[in-house]
Design brief:
Radius of gyration of chain B: 13 Å
Number of strands of chain A: 11
Structural class of chain A: mainly beta
Largest sheet of chain B: 6 strands, mixed
Low-confidence stretches of chain B: none
Oligomer: heterodimer
Structural class of chain B: mainly beta
Strand content of chain A: over 45%
Low-confidence stretches of chain A: none
Distance between the termini of chain A: 36 Å
Number of helices of chain B: 0
Shape of chain B: globular
Order of helices and strands of chain A: EEEEEEEEEEE
Largest interface: A-B, 22 and 22 residues
Largest sheet of chain A: 7 strands, mixed
Strand content of chain B: over 45%
Helix content of chain A: under 10%
Chain lengths: 113, 111
């Protein structure tokens, strides 16, 4: 398995533009998580899905953020409109039941100028 | 909401010295996990602890879960340059599977 795949690896966009981050979880994993990492706030959980259903989106900072998981092999995190304070590394992770932890993707480094 | 704190925030050690990071949760946890993130990389799962007072070892790494299931520690014996990175604990509450990550301890090694 290629692991959790995220795209793009880097994204530079202008303030006000729409940004879409993509994630392909590990096949067979039934939970998917979106995290944001910054120096100031560390690793923050934004939203997680179980069997493609959003379970907890209490970490989504504002209505500008939305996430979808249309099927078991794909999820998106969208920011519209983007703002400079959204600059961060966004990680997607997936997991299955059992003591195996989360498997993280390589992340998307987002810079909003 | 739940908070997970780690100390120290930074640790610089000479190669060959030991290293310990401590993790404290504001709530009782169902389990605790540890992750390592290399500079520029992503968190990588190391281990999960479930039982009160549990101790697990992975080569030079020793993980402990406190009796009250609110704290944990990671100890590295005789550090090597490959141990460089940030070590995170992450706590899971009962009834759900979302992890709250600690603040992390960044380890640097002086060769």
């Amino acid at each position: 398995d290629a692991g959790v795949i995220q795209s793009p690896r880097h994204e530079v966009t202008e303030m006000g533009q729409e940004v879409t981050l993509r994630c392909k979880p590990i096949s067979g994993h039934n939970s998917l998580f979106w995290y944001r990492q910054t120096m100031m706030r560390g690793l923050e959980l934004l939203i997680y899905f179980n069997n493609n259903v959003p379970i907890d989106d209490s970490g989504m900072p504002e209505d500008r953020f939305s996430a979808k998981m249309p099927n078991a092999s794909f999820s998106t995190l969208k920011i519209q409109p983007s703002e400079p304070r959204d600059s961060a590394v966004y990680f997607c992770a997936s997991s299955s039941l059992g003591p195996y932890g989360y498997t993280f993707g390589s992340g998307t480094r987002l810079t909003v100028v | 909401g739940q908070q997970v704190m780690q100390i120290p925030q930074y640790q610089h050690v000479q190669e060959g010295e030991d290293f310990t990071t401590y993790c404290n949760s504001s709530t009782t946890l169902s389990n605790i996990q540890w992750y390592k993130q290399r500079p520029g990389g992503h968190p990588v799962f190391l281990i999960q602890l479930v039982k009160s007072g549990e101790v697990k070892k992975q080569k030079r790494l020793t993980f402990q879960f406190g009796e009250a299931k609110k704290n944990s520690s990671l100890h590295i014996t005789a550090t090597q340059t490959t141990d460089v990175g940030t070590y995170f604990c992450a706590g899971c509450n009962f009834g759900n599977e979302k992890l709250t990550f600690g603040t992390g301890t960044r380890l640097t090694i002086i060769p």
